[in-house]
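lol ok so funny story. i was supposed to be doing the assay writeup but got distracted and ended up predicting the structure for this chain instead. priorities right. anyway since i did it might as well share w the group, maybe its usefull for someone
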Amino acid sequence: AHRASRFEYDENTLPAFKACYEHGIRGFETDIRMSKDGLLVVNHDETFARLTPCSGAVESMTSDEIRKLTTFQGNKILFLDELVGFLSDKDGLYVEFEMKVSPASSYPEDRLREYCDKLYKAVMAKKPEHSTYLFTSSSRDALNMMRKLHPDADMLMIFSKPVCDETIQMAEAMGIKRIGCNMNGTTRSMVKKAKEAGLAVSLWPSRTPEDIMLGVYLGAEYLCCDRAIEVKRFLDEKAPFVKYK
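and the output, tada:
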């Protein structure tokens, strides 16, 4: 469920995660930023303008200021400690925590170090035993810093490109075993090649049952979905031969 199924619920809010879980979703993707005073906040964009009446940047606001905000749908902005607390008693989940560290000027080396260390410790301290928690990013700096600080971190490199020789080689060069690539332009043969290189393949975007079925036939192991509930219902009713967790 991409941002807790953003086309079905108020994205990246606690009610969205709760609704997805109640509907049987066991895989989630979310986005983490850091407030001015060093608290980890769940928000995709650099600012709050798309989801709230406030146009302030996450990194320029304090946690107290952020806690006063509500989305246009009336929900509070979610903090990472609240999210991992909600997930902590739900074993067997697959969760991608995307490291959102743009603009780069907001995350110089010292701040990036602080961010990665806080993120890893907050997430792993409450990870259920049989859940899979990943740290993902399109930022090489963030991935390299996480690897430097916490070599055991399970990571995925995000690309805007399809699965291709370039994306495979970049992941291999960084020692990362998972890639998240654009479904558009991806072929079965390249997915097979990535798997033969020892890489797990996740594809995006996925917004319809048709997208999901395309991803299945391409051979992806993970699909990042904006309408997770609709797609789950489709798979259960129309495509029971597709086995998923």
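The first strand starts at residue 27 and ends at 34. The two ends are 12 Å apart (CA to CA).
back to the writeup now i swear
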